[in-house]
Write a structure and sequence with these properties.
Number of helices: 27
Low-confidence stretches: 79-98, 113-136, 517-532
Shape: elongated
Radius of gyration: 32 Å
Oligomer: single chain
Structural class: alpha+beta
Largest sheet: 7 strands, mixed
Mean pLDDT: 83
């Protein structure tokens, strides 16, 4: 009598499928020579030998191969004393590829909690958490989604189910930035054109189905002046701001909030990383792949990571605990339609994953979207409150999570290692004032700077970082006319910084009275803040119990530093009238300082060109060299589009353009157009960035690189005017120290965030 196999095409939550699966197991193990058979599920793919319980679990969680109608691999068609014959390669390939990837996605999304709980150890349940996961709302959503996935889009359709079509359509909407109204109109058109297809009635209905997959966000009302969030037991019921008395509502009748923070809860997203079969193993890569060759290839090789393990051994004992980096930056979501609107996404980066996955966009966790129109600035702490609260809960209590790889529940904890942002963003997150003569957060109050003219500071004095016997320390005429006998600024620990900010009380929110926003008004404020408190606030990150002991708090962004240094060099060499650092004001500064009298301007304001200034013929040669460079596809953008040979200018350079110029093109283009001493200094500067941005770093080489960049900066002080040395140029002397603490820079720069 032939075996009934119609159950194979039935939904997995039906009685027919369960009974048919039992018949298959009885047949397969009846023809097996032992206690295991080759599992036909999509993940094992007939390649792994499994016991009966495991095979039953796998085929309950993923669909039975639709094309496997004759059970060659399990004894069908053979007599009782014959061995199992392996089918041909193309038969196996057809069977393996016939599984439904949508069902894999559902199983990963719900962590195999849809219909079976026999693989969970009852001893791991904590206060009913596991019971809620198995029998609560998640189970209902799983059944509903599974039903939509097993329902074809129309009768006879084999390519799309109702669920897969909605997901594809939603993906197109997000990629093409289509409005909800446009999607509803498209769905109405499809329903009119294809009457028998099972399209949702509106995009709202489709979104409700997709929302069952989880990972939604929470809307938290906020004060329009960034004073407070209407969040928590004390503030949620308020109708107006406690500080500025502005209403919570934009339109109370329609229940429209004046300003909304969109917060994406972190716990559920971290749980999903371990519930998914595609990511759970990579979340412990940092502990399983240990290469002891003295090179830093990942943040786990850095001093900050290792020190965290020593200070918090309980956290480090379980490799599944997550280390996070926080990145934030403002951008205009409307492109060219608006120049004044800016929102601030906050992104979390899980550093547990391997290098080839860690910094991919798919690995990032969107934590919140801080609304515009104006940037939050110092008030960003108001919006970070929900995230900090959740991070504290993840540190002290953790969250019960199902580990797919080990088929067990465990307590997941998480910690924040550092933040990533551009330099103004660093000031917003840390509270350090980056607009004064003490702008360098690493040198802190021991920053060496001088006010050149209105609002313009020069950060020189790099001879302090040389060893005590270096010959440059006693040289007067080549530098600023003084000897340098001071030592380098001390590196402050988190405890030192905490003592500085302890007791600072700040009232968040925009000023109640309108302020002068003109350029002249901003110039006055820059001068006034010189004598003001350098710390603008006590950062909210100090609420985290481990933040004070972290070796690295707020990373300097190599991407923006490299771009600013490149701009300074290029526009100064080309003597750009607006952006050059060598102009009449710069020459007057030399006269005031009493150094390099050969460059002082005369009574009519005329001055000699500096040794690094390019003449018109050499400028043309320099630009022509850059314009003629041909790059491989995908290596860089078309830099030649930024060069105007007729005007002798470079314009419109992006950050990555400057990265390619500094590390590869500039050392070649300047060789025949500048004196040897200038060429040598610029080539050494370019070499510094090229080595610093390497994929692997050596502690020994970093020590040598640190001494080289200090000498390079000292040589640049002998060539370029004081106006050249902005705070971004000065920050290059601290990049090597941060690389020692945090590891390779491509884990801590803004390229992947801004993209």
């Amino acid at each position: 009598m032939p075996i009934d196999k119609s159950w194979i095409s039935k939904p997995r939550n039906t009685i027919e499928y369960a009974n048919g699966l039992n018949e298959f197991l009885e047949f397969a193990f009846g023809h097996a020579n032992g206690l295991v058979i080759k599992c036909p599920c999509s993940k094992c793919g007939f390649n792994k030998w499994q016991t009966r319980d495991v095979v039953q679990e796998h085929l309950t969680c993923s669909t039975f191969p639709q094309n496997y109608q004759t059970w060659y691999m399990h004894g069908e068609g053979l007599s009782g004393n014959e061995f199992v014959v392996v089918p041909s390669a193309h038969v196996i390939e057809d069977v393996i590829e016939s599984h439904n990837p949508m069902e894999d996605m559902l199983n990963d999304a719900f962590g195999f909690v849809g219909h079976h709980d026999d693989h969970i150890d009852e001893g791991t349940q904590d206060d009913g958490v596991q019971d809620d996961m198995l029998h609560g709302e998640g189970n209902t959503n799983f059944d509903a989604l599974l039903k939509d996935n097993n329902e074809p889009l129309y009768e006879g359709c084999t390519k799309y189910s109702k669920l897969s079509f909605m997901l594809k359509l939603y993906h197109i909407k997000c990629m093409c930035r289509m409005s909800d109204k446009a999607m509803t109109m498209i769905l109405n058109l499809l329903k009119d054109a294809f009457e028998h297809a099972k399209f949702p009635n509106s995009f709202y209905e489709a979104k409700n189905v997709i929302n069952k997959l989880g990972l939604n966000y929470v809307k938290i009302p906020a004060c329009p002046k960034d004073c407070m969030l209407y969040w928590g037991e004390d503030n949620e019921s308020l109708e107006e701001c406690k500080r500025c008395k502005m209403s919570k509502w934009k339109d109370k009748d329609k229940k429209q909030y004046a300003k909304i923070l969109r917060y994406f809860p972190l716990k559920s997203r971290l749980q999903r990383l371990f519930m998914s079969s595609k990511t759970t193993e990579s979340m412990t890569w940092h502990a399983s792949e240990d290469i002891q060759d003295g090179l830093m290839r990942h943040p786990r090789d850095s001093e900050a990571w290792k020190a965290f393990d020593v200070l918090h051994p309980e956290f480090a004992n379980d490799p599944r605990n997550v280390r996070l980096g926080l990145a934030s930056d403002g951008f205009n979501p409307f492109g060219t339609m608006s120049t004044s609107y800016s929102i601030w996404p906050v992104v979390l980066i899980p550093y547990n994953r391997p290098p080839w996955e860690c910094m991919k966009q798919t690995s990032f966790i969107l934590s919140m979207i801080i609304p515009g129109k104006q940037m939050t600035g110092n008030d960003i702490d108001v919006y970070l409150q929900p995230l900090i609260k959740e991070l504290k809960e993840l540190w002290f209590d953790g969250v019960q999570t199902f580990d797919y790889s080990k088929k067990e529940m465990f307590t997941l904890r998480a910690a924040l290692l550092w933040t990533i942002s551009d330099f103004p963003g660093l000031g917003n997150l840390s509270g350090w004032n980056t607009h004064t003569g003490l702008a360098c957060p690493t040198c802190n109050f021991d920053t060496e700077s001088s006010l050149l003219y209105r609002g313009k500071y020069s950060f020189m004095g790099h001879r302090r970082f040389l060893h005590k016997e270096h010959r440059f320390r006693l040289s007067r005429s080549l530098f600023d006319g003084r000897t340098e006998l001071r030592e380098a600024p001390e590196h402050l620990s988190g405890s030192d910084i905490f003592k500085q900010v302890e007791g600072i009380n700040v009232t968040f929110g925009k000023p109640l009275e309108p302020t002068d926003t003109s350029k002249r008004g901003r110039g006055k404020n820059v001068l006034e803040v010189v004598g003001a408190e350098q710390w603008k606030k006590r950062s909210i990150f100090f609420d985290l119990p481990y933040w004070e002991t972290n070796l690295l708090h707020h990373c300097l962004d190599v991407m923006h530093i490299e771009k600013n240094v490149c701009d300074n060099v290029l526009y100064t060499l080309l003597n750009d009238p607006k952006k050059s650092k060598d102009n009449l004001k710069a020459q007057k500064v030399l006269k005031e300082m009493g150094i390099r009298n050969e460059l002082w301007p005369d009574e009519r304001g005329r001055f000699r060109p500096s040794v690094f200034s390019l003449s018109k013929p050499k400028k043309k040669t320099f630009l022509q060299t850059l314009k003629d460079v041909k790059m491989p596809d995908g290596y860089s953008s078309n830099i030649s589009r930024c060069i105007d040979l007729k005007a002798g200018k470079i314009f419109g350079l992006k950050s990555h353009d400057c990265h390619i110029l500094m590390e590869h093109l500039l050392p070649i283009a300047i060789r025949n157009v500048l004196p040897n001493n200038v060429t040598a200094v610029i080539v050494e500067l370019c070499s510094f960035f090229r080595q610093l941005c390497g994929k692997s770093l050596s502690q020994t080489e970093l020590d040598k690189l640190q001494s080289r960049i200090i000498e390079t900066l000292c040589h640049m002080e002998m060539l370029f005017p004081p106006t050249f040395f902005t705070v971004m140029v000065h920050l290059t002397c601290h990049l090597v120290g941060e690389a020692k603490l945090g590891g390779p820079v491509h884990y801590r720069w803004m390229y992947p965030i801004e993209r």
